[in-house]
Amino acid sequence: MCRSIKTLRPPFTEDVTEDDVRAAALQFVRKISGFRAPAKHNAEAFDRAVEEITRVSEDLLSALEVRGSR
Known about the structure:
Layout: H1 18-33, H2 43-63
Helix pairs in contact: 1-2
Pfam family, one: DUF2277
Protein name: DUF2277 domain-containing protein
């Protein structure tokens, strides 16, 4: 499952959308939780984890400095 998460930083990809980052976060949460789709009683925690991982991932990507790429 996580093998389908692609690298999102340059130079691997130039145009990364919020949807790309969210899709990677969703795959990560699915993998570590063991749920493709959570039960109703777990949905809030699952969704919160996806949103937090998306936010942190966007912070990481915006802070990275890739030397030698233009």
